[in-house]
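The protein record quoted in full:

***
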Amino acid sequence: MVVRPLVLLALAAVAAVGCGHGEGRTKPAPEDTVAARFPLAALGDRPLCDRLLARTAAEAVTVDPEPRLRRKVIVSDLHVGPGDVDPRFAGIEDFYSEDAWAAFLARQAAAGPTDVIIAGDFIEFWQIASALGALPKTGDARQPASGPALAADQETSVRAAELAIAAHPGVFRALGQLLDGGDHRVIVVAGNHDADLLWPKVQLAVARAIHPRDPTRLLLVPGDAYEHGGVHVEHGHAFDAANRFATGFAPFGRDRDGRCRLQSSWGQVFVDQFYTETERQLPFIDNLYPESAAILWAMRDNPDPQRDVGAVLRFIDLVRTAETGAFNREAARSVLQAVLGTPEAPATGPSLSGVIDHLSDRLAGGDPDAATITDALLRLRLDPALSSLWRAMARAARALPDLAAAFDELKSVEPEALAHLRDELFGDPLQAAAARIVAGRPGIRVVVFGHTHDVGGQVLPIRAAGGAAGHYANTGSWISVASVAALRARGVTWDKLSLADRAMFPPSTTAVIVAYDGAAPRPPVLANAR
């Protein structure tokens, strides 16, 4: 069951008031019209929290009642940040495509009536709040006694939004120009890095920055996902154990002081306690793929013992946080996989005995998946392409508790081995989720996610349970990225890396485009304009 969001009902009310102005009645000013779209922005903290926490799973998917079908242009993961002028934010800005964004939107508008859908991680709220020191730690006295750990309150999120808007006014102005230039709409879906867009005051700030003449053409989706014309769009973090929220349809809670806050996730704690400071010291970390290989490359070609040991200590503290019970082991394992490319903490050594013991318990309990997992792990253990990795992990484990010596051993791991392990060990949970959505939601034939920063995006056919067929598409990212393996193959060394070199870091303007044959969506196509 789905429900049309309150914001659409508010829109209908505004439209009703605007119809047939009586004699002597003046038309509302544009700013008043924008504010009328977000009535919850006028509420105080306690009544607002009551409203937000009252949301149910039925409100997770916004089904758009719009009768008109326009071509859909879907993008995600711009990660618009606070700029790089303020020293507090040195090294964490990732968006350098403001001119390309404006040109891209102009091209899409010229192609005919268009719905531009931003599918999450539009604004980089996490790192802004982290750099401001505005997030309570997991052990903070304000954290609730039970339930998920909490992060930003609405005031912090508004402040972060204002910083991003001030640093990149052209990004928002270009959206307003699109809306004012024809039969177009803009739909914004929140991701994990910008769940702050679910705050009403943040929505109002973003809407004012876009400043459309007709605010009804701008929709900020209040839940996890958006559906229209046979297309399902969401960011994708709900299918990632490290980044999902406990209640994605209403990721809020009250701290011990009674203040309303967004829920946190393992991924956000990782960004706050480890990643933001690491990116300050390794500014290319978001621009090299895969990130684990980039870290090893930096350690090898640009060694800095103080930086590297500091990173280890922050990471150990992060893992210790995970064991406090604030976050589950599944999420901790997912973060370890993403960062190190290993199925468990590296200290387990090449025998993987702890993992196999656990799987043995599952086998004894009749778990049919355990045999498959065990076989896969043993196959990886015997994979000759991974032999150097297992040897280095064993040496690092023996070197503990000498952190410097253990890190020296890990520096011998070839980045290519880590990439191979990730490819072999971890499938794509978003593809599986897309198949479930096509099978379970009548009429949906195209599922679009972002989140993973797939270089260049992706489109795949789906054969779902029950015979349902459709397509899965991933939007990729607007962050300029380069492959570590490709750069190393060209002989590029760490000291030669330059974000200003557009041949080395080409601009990414990836989008998924869905057109229609009558009422039926065509298979999605990727647009990679340059």
Q: What stands out?
A: The two ends are 41 Å apart (CA to CA). The chain has 19 helices and 19 strands. Residues 1-29, 322-375 have pLDDT under 50 and may be disordered.
